[in-house]
Amino acid sequence: MMAGNTVALSDITPVRPLTVRLHEWVTTVDHKRLGILYILFGLVFLALGGIEATIMRLQLIRAHNDLVSPQVFNRMFTMHGTTMIFFVAMPLVFGFANYLVPLMIGARDMAFPRLNAFSFWMTALGGLFLYFSFLGGDGLYGAGSAPDVGWFAYAPLTAKTFSVGHSTDYWILALLSSGIGSIGTAINLIATIVSMRCPGMTLGKMPLLVWLNLVMASLVILAVSPLTAAQIMLLIDRYLGAHFFDTQAGGSAVIWMHFFWIFGHPEVYVLVLPAFAFASEIIPVFSRKAIFGYSVMVLASIAIGFIGMSVWAHHMFTVGMSAGANTFFVLSTMAIAVPTGIKIFNWLATMWGGRILFATPMMFCVAFLFQFLIAGLTGVTLAVAPLDWQLGNSYYVVAHFHYVIVGGILFCIFAAFYYWLPKASGRMYNEALGKLHFWLFFIGFHLTFDFMHVPGILGMPRRIYTYEPGRGWDIWNLIVTIGVAFQAAGILVFAVNLIWTCWRGKLAGNDPWDAWTLEWLTSSPPPAYNYAVIPEVRSRRPLWDLKHPEDPDWRYE
Amino acid sequence: MFAPVSTPAGSIFGLSIFVLVTVTAIFVAVFALLAYTVVRFRKRRDADNSEPVQIYGSTQVELAWTVIPVLIVVALFLAAARVIAEVQDLTRPPGALEVVVTGHQYWWEYRYPQLNIVTANELHVPVSDATHPGATFLTLLSADTDHSFWVPRLAGKTDLIPNHPNQMWIDPHETGVFLGQCAQYCGTQHAKMLLRVYVQSREEFERWVRDQQQTPKSDATSRGQRVFESTACVNCHTISGTAAKGRFGPDLTHLMSRDTIAAGAAKNTPEQLRLWIRNPDAIKPGSKMPAMGLNDEDVAAVAAYLETLR
After folding, report:
1. A11 to chain B, minimum CA–CA distance in Å?
2. A contacts of B21 (beta carbons < 8 Å)
């Protein structure tokens, strides 16, 4: 077979100099290498964003703490939010989509490999812009480095009057640049999924991961475009004297909020749909059962996409919208709980009657189910506008969306790491370290984000660098900060496991999980061309059909 | 949020109990089901490697777990819509007390147009009791960036946005001091933009109003007043009856009637007042009040002058 030949060939090729190999990575247009680049980029920024979070938590460990100045604290939460959303979560989900989608649909690459490389490097440039602000943000004013306007950068705090120097400009350039990259990747994913599926793979036979990434990519185009437009308007405001958001000249602060949240809320689904995608692949394999209600899962994903575009103003319940508008956004926001609930029930039904193997990927997925249930329910409480009038912009909201992004999305991303690492590296990770990572991170997550709800309910707003004693917030903040240590330890174990796997891991073979989708058909790691012969499929689980010729799936679909 | 003492906060609290009971019930049911599934269907040690029965779906089950959540959503929505209408659609009765609240980086300005009072940071309102029921209506404005007025025991928060006047109302039925703070990030010292609402009995409130309406005695020959009026203090602060007519900072006409200075960041004591005049950054780094570079004698004189403003 061709695949066998390649392995032999690379064995006899002499080791090339490091510069040559690095050059190959920089100039690559291979979807797998770009996927890995996206993921490594995301991991580096995860460390940066984590350090920023740690500084904030140390500052808030007790009332009237003065570890950092208010200026530094404000930069930390701005950089933490911007980093984690745009330069950690987005690159990680794009990285996995890039790596997996062509393999899972039996294609040799993305539809537009050069656009793919361009998109990654635009995102990387955005990350550099953002962190260059630490050096260049001062401008000529000595006004302070990194941006300090908050990650949603409400007008008019971003106007020249309130934000002198260049820190806000670097923030704008970072989002503009990465936004162009995101739109490029989204177009590429849609084109790939629509036109490059292997013979036999009708839309109804695509793996759920591919379906969810198709919805995700559509949302990226709809959501990131207005954000990118708003960044351009803000630049024009700051440098060409326009007044879109400049309230001192009659501009509108509220219009910026609309622009930001018509991006910001669909963005949550941009991140969570790929997380659902990982769960939808991993839960069936480790339960040894086909996904329950495939077509309902697809419909629910599309419903989340559509409804997700109509809920943005629930971030604005306190800005003084009319009672009618508030009521509408209560309804649309709650409506999204229905398809999301359907998904949880379908995963549950998939496990029901199965034979659940608790390897590390499955442990992260099961924890995800419990945590996402809680995140969804606190989301319902916040969808009730009057409760949001109390809880909005408090630590309750901060706890809620970290439950979604960490407890939901990041747990699924960790699951995906352990599940597909054997495919991408060719080597098996260390199961003991994987479980240690899980338990440390699980304990840290719950210490931090369970207890973070409480000070919010007790009236503690977000984004304050210090607080008065005697409001009953102290003890909760202390517990929240202690949780950070466990999370950091978990991440360290994860990093050790990744490196150990790539150097010393046991060879994994093509299909270590006895799984059912196409990527497990090719070698680990896959050759540059993925498949020597383009596969043909007859069902949603082509490898099940191969392994069980007596009882193939296509009889039932 | 707990122990509400005003109708808007009370309605929200009642609604939150209903929502909490509902989501807790859902949580317990789904959690139990998930936990049961995970334990019951885990792979046993003695299990062979045969595959379990493959089930692809069931229309009846899917319908059940679609329809039930829809019904729950409708119930929660109707409950929410009722409270939204109750809080937002209240029309202001003629003669109700009005306060214009203006958010500044990083302090609160209160104007009582019917009473001709201007004050800062500490809001005084009358209690709404059986003999004198009645709400206080707040008009919310901003002089610079976005802010948010949030005193959890009185009402939910409402933002103060430039070019976008907002309204809210409170009708506290208990006297006392209620704490809150700015809840929309507004710049460097967002954290120390604290709120104190003094709910007073009718008599006390009326006494406070009378005191605020007095113009304090002015003695332009006193050293403190001379220093105050000959430095940049007057560019930002107003003291009625004197040359100080600035509008950027809090009105100081009745400074000594307040318990705190620096928007609640420090107690209004002679020591804190002197420290605040000498070096505002020591109390509130990044606040808009500059250190005027006064010598110790001038600081003491200005503080002594301010202490006469009752």
Report:
1. 36
2. none
What are the residue boundaries of the structural domains of chain B, listed by start?
A: 1-36+59-89, 97-213, 223-306
CA dist A294 → A509, A557, B25 (Å): 29, 10, 28
Compute the distance between CA of residue A380 and CA of residue A377 in angstroms, rounded to an integer: 5
Q: In CATH terms, is domain B223-306 a member of 2.60.40.420?
A: yes
The candidate with the shortest Cα–Cα distance to A230, out of A252, A248, A208, A210, is A252
Find out whether B117 and B212 touch, Cβ atoms under 8 Å: yes
Residue B85 with chain A: CB contacts under 8 Å: 323, 327
Angle (nearest 5°) at CA A367 between A363 and A371? 170
Domain made up of B97-213: CATH architecture: Sandwich (2.60)
Domain-located, residue A324: yes
Distance from CA of A414 to the nearest CA of B (A): 20
Work out the end-to-end distance of chain A between its first and last CA atoms, rounded to an integer number of angstroms: 31
Check: CB of residue B248 under 8 Å from CB of residue B236.
yes
How much is the ipTM here?
0.95
Residue B189 has its nearest CB partner, among A70, A341, A394, at A70
Interval A453-490: pLDDT, tens: 999 999 999 999 999 999 999 999 999 999 999 999 99
pLDDT of residue B290 exceeding 70 = yes
Q: Alpha-carbon distance A515 to A282, whole Å?
A: 9
User: Which residues lie below 8 Å from residue A549, measured CB to CB, with a gap of 6+?
Assistant: none
pLDDT tens digit string along A8-41? Answer: 444 556 778 899 999 999 999 999 999 999 999 9
> What distance in Å separates the CA atoms of residue A251 and residue B1, rounded to the nearest whole number?
34
From residue B295, alpha-carbon distances to A313, B227, B229 in Å are 53, 11, 16
- What CATH number is given to the structural domain containing A435? 1.20.210.10
| pLDDT tens column, A165-223 | 899 999 999 999 999 999 999 999 999 999 999 999 999 999 999 999 999 999 999 99
Using CA coordinates, name the residue in chain B closest to A284: B54
Alpha-carbon separation of residue B31 from A284, A410, B35 (angstroms): 20, 21, 6
> Sign (positive/negative) of CA torsion A103, A107, A110, A114?
positive
Tell me the two tokens of residue A131: 């962190």
